[in-house]
Specification:
Chain lengths: 112, 116
């Protein structure tokens, strides 16, 4: 069964304290891995797509990396506005039977 | 309007009511999706429409009925729901490649549904 596990469930950081969020997956045939940010009362907002092991993407204070078993979202010198729930999803299947399998998310709180 | 819009934003209904959720995307995409987000659970894919054709029905109960009249509009018709169906229902759209991996999906703000 395709499975995505995110850790930790919740993370509290002080402003400027760098850290990483983990997304590990067990899927049959990874087609792509997506990171999203979700603020309370809103829909997920797209951050990154990674397609192959070794790939890295960066956006402001965020950097996403991918290996064959997991992905990391590194947050460098976070600010309070980075507080949100970060969701990881993997695309599995092909030939009309594709779907996204999401993890439960990591709730990040950055204190000033 | 820009991006993906959903109406209503909040809905309270009894178990015998019939209601519909509406989603509209202004991005020129060709694929649309319905997701369910419950507390403490991952986002669950419910339905996928590629080029207006339903290509995925993720074992969703028949009390949920999707409709996609064109590539910009998506509806979710609800009838005889149960209290456990209370959740945030999210619509998303993307530009589907058909042959290759999916492109990123853009989500609407969701409809918060409460079933009494």
């Amino acid at each position: 069964e395709d499975q995505v596990t995110q850790s930790p469930e919740a993370l509290r950081l002080q402003e400027g304290e760098s850290s990483s969020l983990n997304c590990s997956y067990t899927v049959s045939g990874l087609r792509g891995l997506f990171w999203y940010r979700q603020d309370p009362g809103k829909g997920p907002e797209f951050l990154f797509t990674l397609y192959s092991a070794g790939e890295e993407k960066e956006k402001e204070r965020l950097k996403a990396t991918l290996t064959k078993k997991e992905s990391f979202l590194h947050i460098t010198a976070p600010k309070p506005e980075d507080s949100a729930t970060y969701l990881c999803a993997v695309q599995v299947g092909q030939g009309g039977s594709e779907k996204l399998v999401f993890g439960k998310g990591t709730k990040l709180t950055v204190n000033p | 309007e820009t991006g993906v819009t959903q109406t209503p934003r909040h809905l309270v209904m009894g178990m015998t009511n019939k209601k519909s959720l509406k989603c509209e995307q202004h991005l020129g995409h060709n694929a649309m999706y319905w997701y369910k987000q419950s507390a403490k659970k991952p986002l669950e894919l419910m339905f996928v429409y590629n080029f207006k054709e339903q290509t995925e029905n993720n074992s969703v109960p028949s009390r949920f009925s999707p409709e996609c009249p064109n590539s910009s509009h998506l509806f979710l018709h609800l009838h005889t729901l149960q209290p456990e169906d209370s959740a945030l229902y999210l619509c998303a759209s993307s530009q589907d490649n058909k042959q290759g991996p999916w492109n990123e999906q853009f989500f609407g703000p969701g409809t918060r549904l409460t079933v009494l």
